[in-house]
Amino acid sequence: MRQRLLGLVLALGLVVGVVVLVVQQHHRSPGPAPQPTATAGSIALSGLIGSEKNDFFTADQVQQAFRAKGLTVSVRTSGSWQMAEEAKGKPYDFVIPASSVAARAITTPITTTAVRPFYSPLVVIAHQQTAQFLQSNGLATVDGNGIWTFHMAQYLADVQRQLGWSDLKGGSLPPDLAGKIYIATTDPNSSSSASLYLAVMSYLANGSQVVSDQTGIDRTAPLLHYLMANQGALLASSDQLFRDFVAGTGKPLSWTYESEVAEQAMKGNMPGDTVVLYPDIGITSDHTVVELTPKADALAQALLNDPTLINLEAQYGFRPTADPQKMVAALKTKGQDHGFLPNLTSLGSQPPPPTTDILQKIVAAASPVGSGN
């Protein structure tokens, strides 16, 4: 009897203990709520950009500046003229080609106004010995401030005569200049920089008139085809063409964005004898945000107006629309501003590019067989 009573007491104690434990757990104060991650509540955006903007968009400082504005931005690179097709049916929020002409070829399902947060002139880069040879043959001049100008009318005259570099008799011919006279570009079917080169050359070949119809296309096509065919295999992106030049494996005379040269100059990566030549009849690359979803406007406005991002745009070689002087000022702080034009208003003629459909026809007429898409 005593053992049975003892067992009953122990069992009752166990039940009471369990009940007390359950009650204590039920009334225990809850712990702190989980804290949101750094990107919680931010606007997530994905888009396509040209390769010349990849260093900027993927830089830690730029990504941090985006997060400070409540944006989480991821990008993929694509040729400016490939973006329209590549964006179809994909969940991209924005695309940023390297020209307003390519931007107009991209359809968007929303009503929006294209934004140009920054821009860059197209330039010719060469080594010092090559630049001096160009100067000796009327293709280039340099002023007292070390700013080089490339003379497009003389270049047009030389290529119309289908001259080779060895036909030029002024000065000593650099060993890397061989074959016909031409400026190396990328593939205009994919790359905006090359299509803008054709825009300038078509303007010159059309009697300093913007090509606006089939007659103009037919008139200029033979020369433009000649300029592209002489180059052989064409690279798909300006980034490849430029990096080959920096590595010493590229073409002696290359058409590229000023921003790519300025960015690497600020990093101290340019060959010491690099010369930047500004065409006296040139064209500017307008990096244009095309919004594909309403939330992309937050990115466009941040790139256009945010002081931190504007400073970073300049540090990566672009000329911010809000303050174009910042790029050369950034170069000056690094002691690398020599040879860069402080103010683009002193450039020569800047004819507008043809309309999108005309430029696409110019590219098709100029492209070597088998090139492009």
UniProtKB/TrEMBL annotation:
SUPFAM superfamilies: Periplasmic binding protein-like II. This is ABC transporter substrate-binding protein. It comes from Kitasatospora kifunensis (Streptomyces kifunensis).
